[in-house]
Amino acid sequence: MNKFPVCPIFIPANRLEWVEKTFDKGADAVIIDLEDSVPSDQKVEARSNLLSYLDTKDLDKTILIRVNPLDSTFGKDDMNLLSEVSSKIDAFILPKIEEADLLDDLPNNLVVLIETPKAVKNLGRLAGHKKVIGISLGGADLSASLGADMGWDSLLFTRSAIIIEAATNNLFTIDSPFMNIEDLSSLKREADLSSGMGFDGKAAIHPDQIEPITKSFLPDEKGIQEAKEILKAFNSSKEAVIAYKGKMIDMPIVLSMEKRLKLVGIDPKNID
Fold first, then answer.
1. 3-state secondary structure 102-165
2. How far is residue 258's CA from residue 30's CA, in Å, rounded to a whole number?
């Protein structure tokens, strides 16, 4: 995966014709979904079509696959069959996952989807597994299991725990989708909160959500230039702390600037 997915958008696996159209609309990643958005009587056919699609297409784009829960026959078959084309898949998203030992025999590049109280309780073990590269919040299922609403404050504890565990284990993070596709202003406010907390991206469920989410997470040209200048100034100094345009710059700020550049695919170790 070249960079963190800032706005991965869910696409049902039985609607594969939407994949390229969605990339054309500005998505930087897609999550092809075999779970909730595919009816049970279509799951086998959808998986078969997905296998053929991945085997024949060369999109050179970030493709994530959400499989069915691993404790179901659908989920087991998803992983067994899709492992054959794992080179075409950037990551597998695992729903309802609660136990880290279930990951041992799976392929690399796993994203754990936190959507049950037990998953929250076991978050440290899940995040620390060597095959996990990311954590995603499943706000709808988690809030339902808690008897809570999906408001920001209701799931703040879990969001905070995800950020801490991700930082500890060097993982990327995807915040939960915003379910009201018509309320883009509220989406933008929540995306700003997610970005400010430290999430690397926020999942989308409709193409109209791509622009506000992207604006919340990606720096503009001014922000990119500032990051480059700060890193150049810091790297050319032998001091542990420098001043840059009236601001104190130390290692935490440097790391933040490096992350800012990584979000837009720029290697902070190789800036012009």
1. HHCCCCCCEEEEECCHHHHHCHHHHHCCCCEEEEEECHHHHHHHHCCCCCCHHHHHHHHHHHHH
2. 25
Residues 92 and 198 in one domain: yes
In three-state secondary structure terms, 67 is coil
* C-beta neighbour count of 257 within 10 angstroms: 22
Tokens 């829960």 belong to 69
CA–CA separation, 213 vs 148, rounded Å?
24
| 266: alpha, beta or left? (left if phi > 0; alpha if psi -120 to 50) | beta
pLDDT digits (tens, 9 = 90+) for 202-245: 999 999 999 999 999 988 899 999 999 999 999 999 889 999 99
| Helix, strand, coil percent content, the chain, rounded in steps of 5 | 50, 15, 35
- Band of residue 15 on the pLDDT scale cut at 50, 70, 90: very high
* Dihedral over Cα of 79, 22, 60, 109: its sign: negative
| Chain segment 141-193, per-residue pLDDT in tens | 999 999 999 988 999 999 999 999 999 999 999 999 999 999 999 999 999 99
Check whether residue 236 and residue 208 sit in a common domain. no
244 domain residue, yes or no: yes
Q: What angle in degrees, to the nearest 10, is found between the helix axes of 156-169 and 184-197?
A: 40
pLDDT, position 2: 54
Q: Which domain holds residue 138?
A: 8-217
DSSP string, 12-61: ETT-TTHHHHHHHTT-SEEEEESSTTS-GGGHHHHHHHHHHHHHH----S
Does 259 lie in the same domain as 150?
no
Q: How far is CA 170 from the centre of its chain?
A: 13
